[in-house]
Amino acid sequence: MTHRLDIKTFIYIFIAFSFSIILRLVWVYQFSAVDEFFWNDQLMINTNDGYFFAEGARDILAGNHQENDLSGVDTALSKLTALCAFVLPFSFESIILFMPTFFSSLIVFPIILLGKELKSSTFGFIAALLASIAHSYYNRTMTGYYDTDMLNIVLPMFLLYFVIAFANSAKQRHLIFSSLSVILYHAWYPQSNALVLALVFMVLLYAFVYEKDRLPLLSLSVLLVLSVLHLHLLPKLVLLVFVYWFFASYKPKTKMLLLLLALSFALLVFVGNLNSIIYLLKVYVFRDELISSSEEVKLYFFTVMQTVRESNGIDFGYFTQRISGHIIIFILSIFGFVWLTLKHRIMILSLPMLGLGFLAYTSGLRFTIYAVPVMALGMSYLICKIDEKMQDKNARFAFLLLSVFLILLPNILHIQAYRVPTVFNSQEVGMLDKLKTIASREDYVVSWWDYGYPLRYYADVKTLADGGKHSGAVNFAPSFILTHDEQKGANLARLEVEYTEKLFALEKHNKALKKDDKNYKKVPSSLLAWMMKDYGFKNSNSFLQSLEENIKLPRKTRDIYLYLPYRMASIFPTIAKFSYRDLMTGKEEIQPFFYKATDFKDLGSTIILGEGISLDKAQDLINIGKHSVPIKAFYTTKNVNEKVLLNSRMIHENGLNVLYAASYGAFFVLDDRAFNSAYVQLFFLENYDKNLYELVLSNPYTKIYKLKR
Ligand code: MN
Question: pTM to 2 decimals?
Answer without folding.
Answer: 0.92
